[in-house]
Amino acid sequence: MTNTVEVNAESLAKGQKIYKSLCASCHGNTGRGDVVAMQSLNPKPTDFTTDNFQNQTDGTIYWKMSEGRGLMASYKTMLSEEQRWQVVNYLRTFQKSSASKNNDSSAPKTVVNTNQNTDSQTNTQAASKIDAFPFTNLINAKTTHIMQTKGFGLTIQHRFGLTKFDEGFVTNLMGLDLSANMRFAFEIPVSKKIMVEIGRTRYGKFYDVGTKYLAMQQTDDNSTPFSLAIYENIAITTEKAPEFSSDATFENGTPFEYKFYHRFYYDTQLIISRKFSNNFSAQIAGQFIWRNLTPFSVKPKEKSYVIAIPISLRYKLGLTSAIDFEIMPNTHHKTMPISLGYEVASSGNHVFQITITNSDRFLSQNIFTLPTAKYNKDGFILGFNLTRYF
Question: What is the residue range of 186's domain?
């Protein structure tokens, strides 16, 4: 791979800024990989000042940074190609710094770009794949992202109680004192295109199993202009069977009897996403929600299915922060989920979001079948999402 960024003061300054933000916590400000707290890692953080590292080609370093290695995350979705080459250029300065600090009497080695074109090389490079979103979830919506095949992921979602800007905002501490809902899920990659997740939600005592298949992935040459994923989730409630009157009937008039299959809820999604720039990504999905049991007595009558078309947006504010937005039009007459999130700490292997939403549910089977709060009347719900890849 050819280094496409010239080594100059500007690129080195930008590379240094990225390095200090994302890399120095493990590899140290001097690049020696000697941060005390990281010495228990296996393998230990690389020492960038060694000949063993510096003798690698620019393309090798770029590839390792893009794909990740061991506990080091992949940065191909977080950093643009230009930013990754800027970091490569900056890493080359550690060899010179090391030689200077050790008072080496010989002249510092000249850093040679081993990827410069020769007569036998060509500027043509294979198209790179692009992830519109760096994580498998945005706020509530699933994304087209499939995590790395190494390891597994853990997502924790938490929603506090409904609150609004009145005296209760202080007395109930912005809803933190009120009853809260939580979901945790383990994400397990099967291949580069398939992953599964297993989750548990507090409200409704739901256990769910989901699978996602990445059918198409956007490329930087626009030969594939967008990413396409198919997602399926099956959830089962383990709450006690609800009580019904002895004269309750099905819609056709036959006596009602609560069956095991009534506990199941289904969610099928077709998700399309695109990264429009280094900072802005968007996606739209088509969802079909099905419940095996719906209340017939509710007016207007509840249907067994809900169709939704959620829209999700993400705008990067900096290397480790972003604004997320979701709006989810659907056919349920009392549901319009609208959510806003702020990523306060994001890297290639973890993200922490602060969220504001009008639904305290997480599974689409519940979000689109239960009434949501109205911001102007009922208030809002604070919460957070935490995702960590191991």
Answer: 153-389
